[in-house]
Amino acid sequence: MTTFVVAGGCFWCLDAVYQRTRGVASVISGYTGGADPAPTYRSVCGGGTGHAEAVAVTFDPAVVPGEVILDMFFTTHDPTTLNRQGYDVGTQYRSALFPLDAAQEVEFAAAVRKFAELYPDPIVTVFESPADFFVAEGIHQDYYNRFPDEGYCRVIIDPKLAKARKYYATWLEEPATPRS
């Protein structure tokens, strides 16, 4: 199994996509890349902790290649907007990759180069040193599957899922039960 730690705006969005990806064993929403030793949703959303909302995606590369996990990351959020994803603004919503080793750093850099050719604006996704990963409060785990009719889910997450289905249908399935 392999784990990627990625941040692409609100963690609920990435969680919803990866929960549906074949070969993904778990998706954990959390906070990383900041200085506060005990971040909470409230403190991170306030923008003062330095943390990003992120997900730790653990997957079986024999089932789904890391390249596909990264392709989904770059397709389902806008890696060209600095510290912003739609209405969510602040460093906590930055586009960031947290390589856990040298091999991941190479793989992540290849993905950035690949998508730099596809986007008309420069990619602003940053590479950050691996940092402590703090698991977000329970309400944030598997959020979309538990609250699909919430306004944020309908307006923000549904279009991201539609995009994932359009480009990655062969890798997706609807979860029978939550994976996290």
UniProtKB/TrEMBL annotation:
Residues 4-153 form the Peptide methionine sulphoxide reductase MsrA domain. InterPro entries: Met_Sox_Rdtase_MsrA_dom, Met_Sox_Rdtase_MsrA_sf. Pfam families: PMSR (PF01625). It comes from the Bacteria. The lineage of its organism: Bacteria, Bacillati, Actinomycetota, Actinomycetes, Micrococcales. Has an important function as a repair enzyme for proteins that have been inactivated by oxidation. Catalyzes the reversible oxidation-reduction of methionine sulfoxide in proteins to methionine. This is Peptide methionine sulfoxide reductase MsrA. The keyword Transmembrane does not apply. It comes from Paeniglutamicibacter gangotriensis. HAMAP family: MsrA. The active site is at C10. Keywords: Oxidoreductase. Its EC number is 1.8.4.11. Belongs to the MsrA Met sulfoxide reductase family. One of its GO terms (molecular function) is L-methionine:thioredoxin-disulfide S-oxidoreductase activity. The keyword Coiled coil does not apply. It catalyses: [thioredoxin]-disulfide + L-methionine + H2O = L-methionine (S)-S-oxide + [thioredoxin]-dithiol; L-methionyl-[protein] + [thioredoxin]-disulfide + H2O = L-methionyl-(S)-S-oxide-[protein] + [thioredoxin]-dithiol.
